[in-house]
Amino acid sequence: MKREASGRAVLLRPRADAADEVQVDLGPLTDGIGYMLRRAQLASFKNFQQVFGPVGITPAQYSVLLIIELNPGLRQTQVSDALGIKRANFVGLIDVLEKRGLAQRIPAVDRRSYALHLTEQGRKFLKPLRELNDAHEAQLAAALGKDGRAALVSALTAIASMETVSGPATDDDA
Amino acid sequence: MKREASGRAVLLRPRADAADEVQVDLGPLTDGIGYMLRRAQLASFKNFQQVFGPVGITPAQYSVLLIIELNPGLRQTQVSDALGIKRANFVGLIDVLEKRGLAQRIPAVDRRSYALHLTEQGRKFLKPLRELNDAHEAQLAAALGKDGRAALVSALTAIASMETVSGPATDDDA
DNA sequence: TATTGTTATACTCTATAACTATA
DNA sequence: TATAGTTATAGAGTATAACAATA
Hints:
The structure is a homodimer.
Chain A: H1 33-52, H2 59-70, H3 76-83, H4 87-99, E1 103-107, E2 114-118, H5 120-142, H6 148-160, H7 162-166
Helix pairs in contact in A: 1-5, 2-5, 3-4
Chain B binds a DNA duplex through helix 4.
């Protein structure tokens, strides 16, 4: 990690021609939680795309597949709520997974809703994805110290839980 | 922080009617860096919006104002590169700040470019925003332990720097 | 009346290509 | 030829409102 005299972190954006490289002082930004959270999340997302690129799965799709396998029979609202996705936007998401033959909507007793399940094909498809995700996570963890990983996840969990405190999470309470 | 028997973190989405609350097992997601990074970033962004809502400034706009004040005279490309924003998308960003009278484009010696500066009004406007950001950061830090903050920022910096390693950052090298 | 899934829609971010004026 | 800024456009992701079917 490159740092300038002040000990401040410098995020380099390498350019095709590195000759006219100019050191821009990012000031307090690189010492702030909010800004670094955004930059780290972007880097993590990019890494996910590189690792999962060949199979054509987005982070959102992967999380949905995981949840459905782990909690078979859930309604769409339950899955979308758990993942922080509006149920209106979840429709297209599950549409894609169903058209790819990975998940299916099964009519439930309450006939307004569907029970979500993975197909057999979906389960087979998901298995090797776990290893891809392990590789992705390993690359993130490699950027941290050995014990830094657990501390980071715990810190992120604490911050992520803030949303529980501050605001409502229901879909259409405006 | 609520945890279930396994010690796994549970992110609650409170609903209007909490009666039919169902515990959805998020499984390995809440133990993963990538997913928790996204959730934490969303929570942080929401907190920023709540704090900065009254003044109508987005995180991106705030970061641009900060960079320009700290490095007066930079070209648009230099600022957008430093912040990881495509120069095409930076145009609208700086347009807004200029129309609000906070920043200005000043013709440079190289007449293809502009030197970016804050206006006097922009400097006055920015001053109290620092306190807002301190409050925002304090609320994030409050979710962490006292020494957790420094460790978190250092970990996020390490992850954010991954993008330096893996991919090119130029604008149109596709 | 309230809820589930759905559609339509709009708004923001982001990404790419192509243009202009300068160099 | 290459670069700085710009425009146009397309694709995600996200947000709200309203509807039909069902409870």
